[in-house]
Amino acid sequence: MSLRAVERKRAIKHFALIATLLISAQGQANDSITLEPLVVEGLSPPGNSLMSPQDTPQSRSIISRAAIEQKSPLNNAYQAMDLLPGVNTYSYDATGLFGGGLRMRGFNSDQLGISIDGAPLNDAGNFAIYPSELVDLENLEEITVTQGSSTTDAPMVGATGGSIGFNTSSPTDHARLRVMQSYGAYNSYKSFLRGDTGYLGDKRFKAFISISKAEAEKWKGYGGADREHLDFKGVLNLAPGSSITGGFLYNEMLNNNLRTLTLAEIQTLGRSADFGHVAPQHLAGINGSAQVEKAPSDLYYNLNLNPYLNYLATLKGRFEILPNLQLEVDPYYSYGYGTGGNQLRSLAESNAANKLGGGIRDINHDGDTLDTVMVYSGAVTDTERPGITTRVRSQIANHHLMGGYWFEYAHHRRTQPAVSFDTAGNSADPWLEKGSLYLLRQNSTPYMGRDFLTLNTSQSFFGQDDISFLNDELILTLGLRYTQIQRDFTNFASEGGGGYYNIKETYAKPLPSVGLRYQFTEAQQVFISRAENFKAPPDSVFYGLIKGGSFDNQGQLTGYTLKPVNVKEEVATNWDLGYRYTGKNISISGSLFYIDYRDRIASAYDPANNIDTNYNVGDSTTRGVELESAYRFLSNWSVYSSLTYTDSHIDQNMQTSANTFEATAGKAFPDVPNWMSGSALQYRNGPWSANLSAKYTGKRYSTLVNDESIKGYTLVSFDAGYRLPSKGWFKDPTVRFNVYNLFNQDYLNLNAGSGSGFTNRALGVGGVAPSYYVGAPRSFSVMLSTDF
After folding, report:
1. What angle do CA 525, 531, 536 make, to 5 degrees?
2. What Rg do the C-alpha atoms of the chain give, in angstroms?
3. Cα-flanking dihedrals φ and ψ of residue 501, to 5°?
4. What is the pLDDT of residues 430-488, one digit of tens each?
5. Closest Cα partner for 230 from 203, 208, 215?
6. 549-573: buried (b, 16+ CB within 10 Å) or exposed (e) per residue?
7. What is the sign of the dihedral through the CA atoms of 604, 101, 697 and 646?
8. Cβ atoms within 10 Å of 684's Cβ, excluding its own
9. How do strand 661-662 and strand 380-396 relate by DSSP bridges?
């Protein structure tokens, strides 16, 4: 990041604090304040907002505010979805500040379309998503999970397995100031402050702004997580049926990574093994003698960081052109910068004409270029993404019509500079943003372990017709989307990536969908749907294509060829057949699903070149059942439950080179449990609330040939809250207590990287042992909040 960007970060933080205090002052000047209660009074729906009535022809689950606010404010958005059918989510720790993983019907998060207020969030290159970068739970109104398909107007090119939409809460109609403070195990805390203006100017405008600060120590080893966050939303009412809603999210975090372990390492080192806590020491430089430094086997915790900054600006324009004609215009802009992984590396000095840039300068300043020196060097990503979605909606007779266009341009730059670190193990620049500190080549250009630029141009044309029959009892939905992405990839000369080359590829696909929903009684309906989804290959398929060659005396790579790119886009056809019953005290939803998956992409080990690479692992078939129910058996007691059965298999052997195959035919796809179930016993009585929840995740295979697996586990959590009577300045003061992993269950989750990365095999020739995140032990948190 530039100095300008750093100043912009500081300005945003100062603006947030000042604006929140100004909003609160305005609120305290208003004597006619009415405040929305934190706990819903009276008879709540079955499931207490874990299950909401649905009317679409697709499988869909929605979690609403009343359920979200029962979670610990320290949690990330993934953790709010843990009980839903088809969803397999986990966190690296109890708080969620260190990140986590998500799968749905066997699809990884990089195969799902993730959005906030309609703006896409998946990484522009590999479609990865990181939950700790998302909205604060305190400002999250609703989570919409569409299992198996995405909406026709979804602004995405990587959603083969469904979509998840996070909708932020609207500003309140009346002014208020909300303060929340949380404390928990491992010295975790979160401070949250939100101010709402209430309606201003004859109900023309209202807004809120919130800031939060959260920290936690790692549950094992040294280090911790530090997160600062800002959310803003404003609504401007122009006329009846016309409005503009603006949103802004800012997030900055600096985390120490948690070490993943193989089964053998867990056996020998124990479950609590982590990165080393003794700073690696440099050798004393001796001119004319080669010093060779080697990183310790357990590395070093403070050179294993995840600093990341991101922000997202959105606008939603809703304009009523005619009584039956509406125009929607949704521009957005997102930015992300950061690095991650292990940054403790070794770099060799040199001074030779046939090296890139003449070789690496004297790092340890001993007067020669003979040494190999430990440095801090991480993979930096810097992304800018402006985009816009426009839609027109109209109703003509029994036809509800929608059509539009989505466009996005992404500038996605990835580099890998290096800086020095001192004897205390502190990097000269943990964010790798200060070019003046970069280690240089002899020609004064910075060392780069990689140097890529991807320019993405994405677009979709889409249309949908919802046709109603029999007084809306029968609805036929017809949709068509044509989606295209053009990748313009440039590999600049670097020490890790070889010489310059440029590749342009375009991926496009028409994606039809059809659905039918029949409401045959007031409480019962059936539905069936078929949808085509596709995902373009990640831009990593263009990495490392240089074969052979050497640098000449001018530092130019010559005599090389480019390996072909054989990875195609993956395509999935999703079928759903389902039934829903919605009653006063009981709701039931069930669906059968079948997914025909062609040219599925996964990252796996290439034995010929001794690297991980992307493959089309072939076709695969996934079928299963999802059940969801909510039952209020007494006025204050209800139970929510979900059950998922998934059978996901690879159809062919995977070809890894011209003459080698892995025996994957008939094998289960890794990290997809056959069985999952979730349940929650819920109590609501005026100011009191309590939940006892359990999630079972079944056995999962860890490799593509299924020669290693991890056992299933059940996590039980508990939360309880009480809203005290309002008194004086304090409105609805509330205390909430949360316990994670109540019975201290031991469990493991597969480390598949940021995407669909799997080990071919754990045993035999070419075998590589998979690594796992060790589940966090029992922990607790307590939250205090009040409005003013």
Report:
1. 150
2. 27
3. -160, 160
4. 999 999 999 999 999 999 999 999 999 999 999 999 999 999 999 999 999 999 999 99
5. 208
6. eebeeebebeeeeeeeeebebbbbb
7. negative
8. 23
9. unpaired
pLDDT tier for residue 549 given thresholds of 50, 70 and 90: confident
Distances (CA, A) of 573 to 119, 376, 567, 577: 24, 45, 19, 14
User: Rounded to whole angstroms, how far apart are CA atoms 313 and 387?
Assistant: 11
- Residues linked to residue 557 through DSSP beta bridges, in sequence order: 551
Cβ pair 722, 733 in contact under 8 A: no
- Grouping H, G, I as helix, E, B as strand and the rest as coil, residue 674 is coil
562 vs 182: which has the higher pLDDT: 182
For residue 38, the model assigns a pLDDT of 32
595 token code pair: 């997914």
**pTM score, two decimals?**
0.90
Asked if 3 and 436 count as a contact pair (C-beta separation under 8 A), the reply is: no
DSSP 262: -
Q: Give the contacts of 7 (CB within 8 A, at least 6 positions apart).
A: none
**Measured between alpha carbons, how far is 1 from 5 in angstroms, rounded to an integer?**
6
DSSP-assigned states of every residue in 180-230: EEEEETTTEEEEEEEEE---BTTTTEEEEEEEEEEEEE-SSSS-EEEEEEE
The token pair that represents 173 in the structure block: 């109609």
- Please tell me the distance from the alpha carbon of residue 274 to that of residue 258, in angstroms, as a whole number: 7
Q: List, in sequence order, every residue forming a beta bridge with 231; answer none if it has no partner.
A: 210, 249
Q: Is 70's pLDDT higher than 70?
A: yes
Q: What is the DSSP string of 511-555?
A: EEEEEEEE--SSSEEEEEEEEEEEEPPPGGGGTT-EEEEEE-TTS
In total, the chain counts a number of residues equal to 788
What is the DSSP secondary-structure string of 142-193? EEEEEES---TT---SB-SSEEEEEEEPPPPSS-EEEEEEEEETTTEEEEEE
